[in-house]
Specification:
Order of helices and strands of chain A: EEHEEHEHE
Number of helices of chain B: 4
Radius of gyration of chain B: 16 Å
Radius of gyration of chain A: 12 Å
Bound molecules: adenosine-5'-triphosphate, magnesium ion
Largest sheet of chain B: 5 strands, antiparallel
Number of strands of chain A: 6
Mean pLDDT of chain B: 95
Structural class of chain B: alpha+beta
Distance between the termini of chain A: 20 Å
Strand content of chain B: 25-35%
Low-confidence stretches of chain B: none
Oligomer: heterodimer
CATH superfamily of chain B: Histidine kinase-like ATPase, C-terminal domain
CATH class of chain A: Alpha Beta
CATH architecture of chain A: 2-Layer Sandwich
Shape of chain B: globular
CATH class of chain B: Alpha Beta
Number of domains of chain B: 1
Strand content of chain A: 25-35%
Helix content of chain A: 40-55%
Number of strands of chain B: 5
CATH superfamily of chain A: STAS domain
Order of helices and strands of chain B: EHHEEHHEE
Chain lengths: ~100, ~150
């Protein structure tokens, strides 16, 4: 699925982002994730990138931004479905060392 | 005596693309350049490298170059293929320019903290291509030149 899908159950919010995760997509996805985040105030946020076909540094910005939101709200933050290319970008920034990646 | 056979590097193709600096053109720029570079039969990984590097340069034109302008400016892309299996891509704008290029190219440096930027764009370009050269003139614009030789 391209774009964003949000599910919430028992304190766990899952945001699945698919398609080309660039600046254009991130601008809208970020707002929608954040408004759901404030509505549900989850204990755990899972950013699921399984459906991602492309990511550049804008996607990294999206991940870093959600990470700091969660840190401030004392919410656990997990990302999953990261492919090898996205992993390279995460490593470049050092974010691979602070994130919970599954 | 060893005689070196000189392989002359010849230009085999070239395209120029002008795009409005709006975010919906980021994917279009990636698609154009990767379709063009596919002419050298690169591996899928090599093509993905080019796609990502181009995305970074083009996104910078959209995000930074014309920031605060009433109407978006333009992005100028010039891509070339050479007979030694090199692709070069130049991405230019006529926007605000970069005051300190060295600082701008430092990993994690960004002037756009509110925009949730990671400051890794130039680092990605450097890591995914063989060579990145940036020239810029404050209020004149910026030109990013990248080249990559395919296996
Ligand atoms: N075309 C441009 N015109 C004007 N300034 C630019 C341009 N490209 C880059 N810059 C400046 O260089 C800085 C670093 O660029 P870089 O792409 O590395 O990071 P970023 O765009 O800030 O964040 P990210 O690319 O990770 O989203 C930018 O914050 C901006 O100040
Ligand atoms: Mg950038």
């Amino acid at each position: 699925m391209d774009g964003l899908e949000i599910e919430y159950e028992n304190g766990v919010m899952r945001a699945s982002v698919g398609g080309e995760v660039d600046h254009h997509l991130c601008a809208s996805v970020r707002e929608d994730i954040d408004s759901a985040f404030f509505k549900y105030a989850p204990k755990k946020l899972i950013l699921d990138l399984t459906g991602m076909k492309f990511m550049d540094s804008s996607g990294l910005g999206l991940i870093m931004g959600r990470y700091s939101r969660c840190l401030a709200a004392e919410c656990e933050f997990i990302i999953c479905g990261v492919d090898e290319r996205a992993m390279r970008i995460l490593r470049m920034s050092g974010m691979d060392k602070v994130l919970k990646i599954k | 005596m060893i005689t070196e056979k000189k392989v002359k590097k010849e230009k085999i193709n070239e395209v120029k693309i002008t795009l409005l600096a709006v975010s919906r053109n980021e994917s279009l720029a990636r698609a154009y350049v990767s379709a063009f570079a596919a002419g050298l039969d690169p591996t899928l990984d090599e093509l993905a490298d080019i796609r990502c590097a181009v995305s970074e340069a083009v996104t910078n034109c959209v995000v930074h170059a014309y920031k605060g302008w009433e109407n978006p400016g333009k992005i100028y892309i010039n891509a070339r293929l050479y007979s030694d299996r090199t692709v070069t891509v130049e991405v230019s704008d006529r926007g605000c320019g970069i005051e300190n290029i060295e600082m701008a190219m430092t990993p994690l440096f960004t002037t756009d903290k509110e925009g949730e930027r990671s400051g890794m764009g130039f680092s990605v370009m450097k890591s995914f291509t063989d060579c990145v050269r940036v020239t810029s003139k404050p209020s004149g614009g910026t030109r990013v030149f990248m080249s990559k030789k395919f296996s």
